[in-house]
Amino acid sequence: MSARVTTDFWVRAYLARLEAVHIPAYVVAHGDATAGAVLVKLATLDGRARIFQRSFDLMSGARRWVVLAEGSESEVDAAVSRQRRMDPDLWVIEIESREGRTLLDEEGLAD
Asked: Exposed, middle or buried by CB within 10 Å (0-12, 13-18, 19+), for 73?
């Protein structure tokens, strides 16, 4: 049995990791501190954006980050707004990276 990390703790650790490699990131919506879901919006600073959400792979049992929406930043913002209306406990982190770096594919960030 493993202890589950609270969302607040995960978000703080993720933001610290991004800051350590000089990737600007901000919490734009603060959800439930204990168990809120997280969306990560990547703005590539060229008018385009992508939203990532954690997904559970039923075949392997692993968690991984998948693209929920991508397109113009206004389209992606509209998708985030729709998700927030459905889930008021949702966290939204916004990353600004021309290179498209999120660090989400790094070991341990899907857990």
From this structure: middle
The domain containing residue 60 runs over which residues? 7-96
State if pTM tops 0.85.
yes
Residue 36 is assigned to a structural domain of this protein? yes
Inside any domain, residue 40: yes
The three-class DSSP label of residue 96 is strand
11 strand-pairing partners: none
Q: For the chain, how many structural domains are there in total?
A: 1
What is the pLDDT confidence band of residue 5, given thresholds at 50, 70 and 90? confident
Gap between the Cα atoms of 96 and 94, Å rounded: 7
Please tell me the distance from the alpha carbon of residue 63 to that of residue 55, in angstroms, as a whole number.
Answer: 6
pLDDT(13) > 50: yes
Q: What is the pLDDT of residues 57-72, one digit of tens each?
A: 778 877 889 999 999 9
CATH of the domain at 34: 3.40.1530.20
54 within some domain: yes
The dihedral sign for the CA sequence 43, 44, 46, 52: negative
